């Protein structure tokens, strides 16, 4: 038996559920121990039956917003002070030693880049392809500038080249990572690439997303990994699906914001549809939404196939992959380059329409939803993509990869 430590960012729903899927797929003889600093989605880990070790220091609300914006490339300001990075590295090293971990599996937890290597434990990172080193190095346009016109294309090409240089060469990593890495006997971490590349990077994508790219050593495709939350759908879903009106799913994950939720809900309220919207965590108590928008808590979206006719999504990989796997065509409102990439891959497959977040509050969103509902070609594409997803099990593939690497070390 080997013990494997999982360290997602526990205020990020997609990362928590991705780690749960990999842990569930491990051979039962292995022990999975989760570590996290914030408690937003830690209950999902406990409910799934895994051991969870809450650790300190956690982010304040302000630090959390900073960390999310830093991860999305929207700011160079970071909450990662010397004290916070050092304390988290110490906490992670203590747990690795305590449980005698054979491997560490992470979400985008940058302190693990120091702690796992200082303890000489292999580090695994199930991750979307967008904004990884091979994608940044090889893509012509990354989506930093939106638009299809000549000016937008040229501007995005230039922005992509600048990002490529900065990603690999500029000392943009918070200085704390360089200082704490040296204090733990490692080379300093100075670039963005050094904070986002593990020993083994397991790409959670479909084969067509890698067409035209070559993968360097340390990268392997495992396939889609998305949430399979426990529990049943709330009764309102079946009730709404039984009505003559189409049913639309509004899914914005955990990295959107109240303004987007309100804007999208208001526009969907103008259409002759019903809407099920697990967006309660974004709303204030006095927010009032249209009567046809039914707000719920988080729900097992992988069970929505056959109930929902279309979706409006923020573009996070988990929500996109869930829609693909269940055959639900969608409108995507990508908030940052990784989400834009996820949506664009589906646009190319024919099962999605891409809009900008600013268009959520305009007639463009209503028009796009109406097209999704009326166009049989979009539905056929969604069915074809769903069929392709049935042959994939990224959680199991990631678990087998981790187990094989552990076994090769133990031999």
Major sheet description = 7 strands, parallel
- CATH-level-4 superfamily name of the largest domain: Glycogen Phosphorylase B
Overall strand count: 13
Secondary-structure arrangement, i.e. CATH architecture of the largest domain: 3-Layer(aba) Sandwich
By DSSP (H or I, 4+ residues per run), the number of helices equals 16
Question: What is the fold named in CATH at topology level of the largest domain?
Answer: Rossmann fold
- Broad CATH class of the largest domain: Alpha Beta
Which structural category fits the helices and strands? alpha/beta
Helix and strand pattern: EHEHEHHEHEHHHHEEHEHEEEHEHEHHH
Low-confidence stretches: none
* Fraction of residues in β-strands: 5-15%
Distance between the termini: 14 Å
Helical coverage, percent range:
40-55%
The average pLDDT is 93
The backbone outline, from C-alpha atoms, is globular
Oligomer: single chain
Radius of gyration from the alpha-carbon trace, in angstroms: 21 Å
